Amino acid sequence: MTFKLLGILDVQNIPCSRESILYGSLGSVAVGLGHFLATSRVRRSFDFGMGGFVLTTLGCWIYCRYSHAKLRIQQRIIQEGMRNKILYESSDFDPERKQNSNLESKS
């Protein structure tokens, strides 16, 4: 069973959504409560809490998605390097073999 927030956002299957919403709700409570303790204005504190939720959620979402994209790029580079290593190993096109032969010829 999947949990859908507002009937649209599938929190379990979308990367970063769960963490972003949890951190956003924590940010909402912190900002709203802090503003209420400072000013004792309920409606204004609620508005600040909602703003804190939106800003914290978006900030966490953007940071998490950026980290995931960076990780996927690194994984793709590593996979391509491993594929090339397997293809070119012990052949005339192997870059390591060329470097070793250049070093031996210079000596």
TrEMBL record:
<keyword id="KW-1133">Transmembrane helix</keyword>
<keyword id="KW-0472">Membrane</keyword>
<keyword id="KW-0812">Transmembrane</keyword>
<feature type="transmembrane region" description="Helical">
    <location>
        <begin position="48"/>
        <end position="66"/>
    </location>
</feature>
<dbReference type="GO" id="GO:0033617">
    <property type="term" value="P:mitochondrial respiratory chain complex IV assembly"/>
</dbReference>
<keyword id="KW-0496">Mitochondrion</keyword>
<dbReference type="Pfam" id="PF12597">
    <property type="entry name" value="Cox20"/>
</dbReference>
<comment type="similarity">
    <text>Belongs to the COX20 family.</text>
</comment>
<keyword id="KW-0999">Mitochondrion inner membrane</keyword>
<dbReference type="InterPro" id="IPR022533">
    <property type="entry name" value="Cox20"/>
</dbReference>
<dbReference type="GO" id="GO:0005743">
    <property type="term" value="C:mitochondrial inner membrane"/>
</dbReference>
<feature type="transmembrane region" description="Helical">
    <location>
        <begin position="21"/>
        <end position="42"/>
    </location>
</feature>
<protein>
    <recommendedName>
        <fullName>Cytochrome c oxidase assembly protein COX20, mitochondrial</fullName>
    </recommendedName>
</protein>
